[in-house]
Design a protein that fits this description.
heterotrimer, A: mainly alpha, ABC transporter involved in vitamin B12 uptake, BtuC, two-stranded antiparallel sheet, C: 396 residues, alpha/beta, Rossmann fold, five-stranded parallel beta sheet, 14 strands, 15% strand
Chain lengths: 291, 598, 396
């Protein structure tokens, strides 16, 4: 029983990271029908920068805050530099490759800086473990899925209550109509990328105390976050968040009852099967093509 | 083959012969052999990316499949290199079919993710299936390259690789300039139009995937024999990106681009070593630069440059066109086509777009379908051309049931159409657009296409001449080498008609052909419709333009709120009070419709 | 030589014959020592460490007049941990640069892949890091693969002995990374256990960058393991310790040298008492050579604090390997690959890491390894620092 609880809670923690990353992909996709393939590196920037600043003697909160802001700025710059020039091309090769290229560059700089070593990010959330239903966890890990749900609710609030949020929804619904209504579409897209990157960098700051910050910490969460977004239906914020949490839990159970080694194989096969049955993802909206 | 292409193949052959003679040492030759293997992958991938327009970020997975399959049958079962390569090609090809299946439902970025996932699954299976693949340590002791028991010398193995690449480039070139290549390009640019012309997108995408998979599989076996050692780290996501980049950098869809891209990206790491810890950064920066400076690749940019410098080159020797009256001559054995739709109902959710609409296009007539906006005309057209499935009801062409068939099957039954919003293959030339329309009348198969057999060339010439004749028929003879997207709007409409006629239809469905045309263009259109009908082709015309309808239609059917409210000769329909009401509301008078038509 | 080897020989001969003749003749330029290592990627530190150790030795040798009157130079190529690039680099070093020898790198998969080209070409290779047993014990004769570093087979015995000292009833679990290094060590560990009449109660694997190890740790705990042996790098080692901490499982932890980098920094107090096998530490009282190397590290690379040196073993092994190679060249009296390979068996030297008397032994296939189990060092993490186990608070 405690083992099952352990898998569920551990899975929710890592799933929360997938959910936050996937939420970022959702925000970007809604605005631009394009995403930043270096989004995993946004997460890395957040985590690594926070660890660096703390190592340099900054107070934890300040270091984390700045790291998240820099992550957001990174997303803003990527959209401007690498995505916008290629938006609207028939196939998506342009922005896929440019953002991958920037990811390679960022990761290279981070590797040179750290020489490949991981850096610790001390946080009160991992000072001691707590027991929940027989499962041992750091409070930080308990907080992550909760924060993912809060972020999802926050996004909805933003879209309902603020001008920019409503503009985001309008752009997501129909970009041309939004432009005709006087919405600055480019501004909304840039804002969306920045917002997505804020959540990505925040995910990095949240996970770094648990997994340590390193140059490659964003690779797998980035890839799986995107897989989760596609699987959950990239047009639906609750869809990607719930799928992310579920994916984390499934991974843990595969690790626990099949083998650690089978995790990636089972996970990605599951994704392909889901896409075959639900081409728009589990919770995605169908886009009817008009002839 | 154009003179430039011939020169290119000569240059490639010279290079392949010269390199072993000038290599300074074994290392240089080996590196060059590595390039040959990568080039094989890139040329195959180009069919998928360049022609079929599908992005694969999992090519390393297929490369790995080929590599492992080849290595395993060679070490375990003692197959020679040819046997191993064949088994690897078959296994990789089967996985290519498997990978193509999702394209039925997902496209674009979704497909990219499926391919990424595929690559990761293969990599992880290679790691986990230790008894078969040796796990992370990989497979060692792969025998030296051998054929029928005889060990190949280094030179002979080089010869095998060089010949493979040369033949593959030639075959890929031939494929591109055949009905298969045209079909792939067409489907990538407008799937809708391609389906309406009878092309089967799933079959073509599967073919493209299989080509890319088989070449990667063979390259994988070659690689295993060259390296004598394989392990999962050879086949990572980074490698998939590199393979894709080879195609993009060299120039997607070009004949020699992938080879050039593979050459650069094989040798680049050697030079990047200078940057020591910064080499990955330099690689990323270069990748970025390529996307900005050469978005269409080296060959694409060179081509654009050449076109700008020598615009005259476009006006190549005109092909003598076969007159449309000959190529579209009605078949004596088959009467004029009759289309019958019975009680068609189409519902979208709670909305009934078409309610029990029945219609009969009599053999050889020009039948107009009119109705106010939202009356269900587009739904009707899209239903009988197979893009929508009717909720109930049926329709048939000359007694052949078409209900439930997919659009390309309906097209093959003899129904061709144009589109309200023109759906041209924008990046193909005007002539090529029409040649795609002729696609279903070509009989040669894949082998003939790859070999460019004399019979295939005869058929192609016939196709080109027919297309040229149809362009003359619609008055576009002078534009044949223009890219379709650069045509003025009015001419684009005519091109769509020529393209639809090329399919040799017995019923032509024109979806608002007069929309956006000038008065003079409408007059020309009217004459053209008469000439088409004169060739014995039944015409179903969907139109708003009352004057045109009254002038050309033999029968007019009026739709309103999804129901047929009238169907008769133009004069009778014009006088029908229900029609007047549908158009102008209850207070409108008969005179108004007459005015509107004036 | 096996028949396969003969085939390869023919292949090479043929390749050489068709216009590549001369590749065996050594260029008249400055003789070089080549190195294929990870300069980029997650193990970038290893390439840097090898470069430091080898360069310091080469500089010293050159200052003393070089070898056979010629100065040496180091050529380093990046393989990023990828075997095919390691193989290409090996060929480049041997055939294009015509270096005297190849120094190995960090990754075991690369070292295993290098066996083939190294023996096919016949260029001496000296491993300075990767510990995979089969990379060096590859069954070839003559064998051009040598090593001045730990060997997993012996490390396994060394650590199993330590583990059994700690354990009351011999219940030992083994955690290994899912790489060529980790998977290669599994049979070595099983053999070492079997030699002591024991069996592992659990063998758990994980990937690089895995973020949570609780399933593996739970299984080890449920199997009743009192000692956990770890074949991992620092980051994953830290994950293992944290997962243990979370479920309140407190076995003794003994690791191979992958966790000798910055585990103390990552895991904080959780790392206290974790034992690690090393080949060298700059934190023990240093001899003459050690002081000289430390001074050079400070002067050339600004590493002023010995405890800030994270890859001591790699630096020291590379340093010794260069000296052993220089000795072999002197004994051979030539820069010829085959002669140097034979001469390597005749080197006797008092090195930084150990006394090599002799460095390698032609009569014993296990002895293409210069470092013997008795040279291994047991260290322990204590308050963020890796200190020699002997005399530490944990040495009872």
């Amino acid at each position: 029983m405690s083992t099952v609880a352990q898998y569920i809670f551990s899975g929710l923690a890592i799933g929360g990271i997938y959910a936050l990353v996937a939420l970022g992909f959702h925000i970007m996709w809604s605005a631009a029908r394009a995403v930043n393939f270096a989004h995993g590196d946004t997460l890395m920037i957040g985590g690594l920068l926070a660890a660096y600043l703390v190592g340099a003697g900054w107070p934890l909160a300040l270091a984390c805050g700045l790291a998240v802001l820099v992550g957001g700025a990174f997303g803003f710059v990527i959209e401007r530099l690498a995505v916008r020039p290629f938006a609207g091309q028939a196939n998506s090769i342009g922005w896929m490759l440019t953002t991958i290229a920037i990811g390679i560059m960022v990761e290279s700089v981070a590797t040179i800086e750290t020489q490949g070593y991981a850096l610790p990010l001390p946080s009160p959330g991992v000072a001691g473990s707590v027991q929940v239903l027989g499962a041992g966890l750091y409070p930080q890990e308990l907080a992550i899925p909760v924060i993912a749900l809060v972020a999802m609710a926050g996004l909805r609030l933003l879209q309902r209550r603020t001008l920019i949020g409503r503009a985001m929804q309008a752009v997501a619904h129909n970009r041309n109509a939004a432009a005709l209504m006087g919405i600055d579409v480019n501004l909304v897209i840039a804002f969306s990328f920045a917002l997505a990157s804020l959540t990505g960098a925040a995910a990095g700051v949240l996970i770094a105390p648990v997994v340590q910050a390193s140059a490659t910490m964003g690779v797998l969460p980035g890839l799986k976050g995107f897989a989760v977004a596609i699987m959950g239906g990239i047009t639906s914020a609750p869809g990607v968040v719930l799928t992310g949490l579920a994916y984390g839990v499934i991974e843990k159970f595969v690790e626990g009852y099949v083998s650690t080694a089978a995790r990636e194989i089972v996970g990605f096969s599951l994704m392909i099967v889901v896409l075959l049955v639900f081409p728009q993802g589990l919770f995605g909206k169908r886009e009817v093509a008009k002839v | 083959m154009t003179r430039l292409h011939t020169l290119g193949f000569l240059a490639l052959a010279t290079l392949l012969l010269a390199v072993p003679l000038t290599s300074g040492n074994e290392y240089e030759l080996r590196l060059f052999m590595l390039f040959l293997i990568y080039a094989i992958i890139a040329v195959g991938l180009n069919v998928l990316v360049g022609l079929a327009g599908l992005v694969s970020l999992g090519q390393a997975g297929l490369f790995a499949l080929g590599s492992y399959t080849g290595a395993i049958v060679a070490t375990r079962l003692g197959f020679d290199m040819i046997g191993s390569a064949l088994v690897a090609a078959v296994v990789a090809g089967l996985f290519g079919v498997l990978l193509a299946y999702p394209t039925v439902r997902v496209r674009g970025v979704y497909l990219a993710v499926v391919t990424i996932a595929f690559g990761l699954i293969v990599e992880n299976v290679a790691i986990e299936w230790q008894s078969l693949t040796g796990g992370t340590t990989g497979l060692t002791s792969i025998p030296a390259p051998n054929v029928f028991g005889a060990v190949l010398s280094g030179y002979a193995y080089y010869g095998v690789l060089a010949a493979s690449l040369f033949l593959l480039v030639l075959a890929a070139h031939n494929l591109k300039f055949s009905r298969y290549g045209r079909a792939m390009l067409a489907i990538a640019q407008s799937e809708t139009a391609a389906r309406a012309l009878g092309l089967n997108p799933t079959a073509m995408r599967t073919l493209a995937f299989v080509v890319a998979a088989v070449t990667s599989g063979i390259a994988g076996t070659y690689y295993a024999f060259l390296n004598a050692y394989i392990s999962p780290d050879i086949f990572t996501f980074t490698d998939s990106v590199r393979f894709l980049l080879m195609v993009i950098l060299g120039g997607a869809a070009s004949t020699f681009g992938p080879v050039i891209g593979a050459y650069i990206l094989t040798y680049l790491p050697e030079y990047l070593q200078e940057f020591a810890v910064w080499q990955k950064f330099a690689y990323g920066a270069l990748l970025l630069a390529v996307m900005f400076v050469l978005p269409r690749g080296i060959m694409g940019s060179l081509g654009a440059l050449a076109a700008r410098l020598r615009p005259a080159a476009k006006a190549a020797t005109p092909t003598a066109g076969l007159p449309a009256e000959i190529t579209l001559a009605p078949d004596e054995r088959r009467p004029h086509a009759e289309l019958v739709a019975r009680a068609l109902t189409v519902r979208f959710g709670g909305l009934t777009a078409l309610a029990e609409a029945s219609l009969r296009v009599k053999p050889g007539e020009i039948h107009a379908l009119i109705g106010p906006n939202g009356a269900g005309k587009s739904t009707f057209v899209n239903t009988i051309s197979g893009f929508y499935r009717p909720t109930s009801g049926a329709f048939e062409l000359d007694g052949v049931q078409l209900t439930g068939l997919s659009s390309h099957e309906i097209a093959r039954a003899g129904l061709a159409r144009t589109f309200q919003n023109t759906e041209l293959f924008g990046e193909m030339t005007v002539l090529e657009n029409v040649m795609v329309g002729y696609q279903q009348r070509l009989a040669y198969g894949l082998a003939a296409a790859l070999l460019h057999t004399p019979a295939m060339r005869r058929e192609e010439n016939r196709c080109r001449e027919t297309a040229a004749g149809l362009l003359a028929f619609v008055g576009l003879a002078d534009y044949r080498h223009e890219q379709a997207r650069f045509l003025p709007f009015g001419l684009q409409r005519r091109l769509e008609i020529a393209r639809a006629l090329a399919a040799g239809p017995r019923l032509l469905l024109l979806d608002e052909p007069a929309a956006g045309l000038t008065t003079q263009e409408i007059d020309e259109l009217e004459a053209m419709i008469r000439r088409i009908a004169g060739l014995g082709i039944s015409v179903l015309l969907i139109e708003h333009h009352v004057e045109l309808i009254m002038a050309v239609a033999d029968t007019v059917t009026v739709l309103d709120y999804g129901q047929v409210i009238a169907s008769d000769t133009p004069a009778v329909v014009q006088a029908d009070p229900r029609v007047v009401e549908a158009y102008f509301g209850s207070s409108a008078s008969h005179a108004n419709l007459a005015e509107a038509s004036a | 030589m096996s028949s396969k080897g003969l085939m390869r020989g023919q292949l090479l001969a043929a390749t050489v014959a068709f216009g590549l003749a001369g590749s065996m003749a050594h260029a008249q330029q400055q003789p070089c020592i080549g190195n294929s290592a990870a300069v980029t990627g997650p193990a970038a530190f290893s390439g840097q460490a090898i470069k430091m150790g080898a360069q310091i030795a080469i500089d010293e040798i050159n200052e003393a007049g070089g070898v056979l009157g010629q100065k040496l130079r180091l050529v380093q190529y990046d393989d990023a941990g990828a075997p095919p690039r390691g193989v290409d680099n090996t060929r480049r070093i041997a055939l294009a640069d015509k270096c005297i020898a190849v120094l190995g790198g960090f990754h075991s998969t690369v070292a295993v892949a290098q066996v083939e080209p190294v023996n096919e070409i016949g260029i001496p290779y000296i491993g300075v890091w990767a510990a995979n047993t089969k990379a060096i014990e590859n069954g070839r004769d003559p064998n051009f693969m040598f090593r001045v570093s730990a060997k997993d087979k012996w490390v396994a015995r060394f650590l199993v002995d330590e583990a059994l000292k700690v354990s009351k009833d011999g219940k030992i679990a083994f955690f290994y990374e899912n790489t060529g290094w980790g998977n290669g060590a599994l049979p070595d560990i099983k053999a070492a256990m079997a030699a002591r009449g024991k069996e592992l109660v659990a063998a758990e694997t994980f990937n690089w960058n895995d973020q949570d190890m609780s399933p593996q740790v739970i299984r080890a705990r449920d199997a009743g393991a009192e000692v956990v042996m770890v074949w991992s790098l620092d980051r994953e080692g830290n994950q293992i310790l944290r997962a243990m901490d979370k479920i309140g499982y407190k076995p003794a932890v003994i690791g191979a040298w992958g966790i000798s980098g910055n585990l103390g920094e990552l895991a904080g107090p959780l790392a206290n008492g974790v034992r690690v096998m090393q080949t060298y530490s700059f934190l023990t009282p240093q001899g003459e050579t050690g002081k000289k190397v430390l001074a050079a590290l400070a002067a050339k690379y600004g590493l002023n604090d010995p405890s800030a040196i994270k890859a001591a073993s790699g630096i020291a092994d590379a340093y010794d390997a260069v000296y052993i190679l220089a000795d072999a060249i002197r004994i051979a009296g030539a820069f010829d690959w085959a002669k140097v390979q034979k001469a390597l068996y005749e080197v006797n030297r008092d090195g930084l890491v150990a006394p090599y008397k002799p460095a390698f032994d032609k009569a014993d296939p296990e002895r293409n390894d210069a470092l013997l189990p008795e040279h291994y060092l047991l260290a322990v993490w204590h308050d963020g620092k890796l200190i020699p186990f002997k005399g530490s608070p944990y040495d009872k």
